[in-house]
Amino acid sequence: MYLPPYWPDLNPIVRIWLTIKARWFNNYICKSEKKLLERLDQAIWDVIDNPEKTQQTTAIGMLFYQTLYLMLLSIRIFITLAQSDT
Among candidates 66, 29, 28, which has minimal Cα distance to 47? Predict the structure, then answer.
């Protein structure tokens, strides 16, 4: 199946971020950077803790989900380090 170089509708990463944005950041006003990082951390844990919901929403397979899991954990580490610096 041919895919153009950039096709956001079929890119699972884009779909994950759109899902996170819709669930966690719709009508959310952040008062500080710390609160934003906490909210992002909660959203990432929601994706990690609910693989069935994430796979269903984004139509991704288990192998890709495992790769996504590792990516989200690395983002969590970055968030934790950023929070400890402040």
Answer: 66
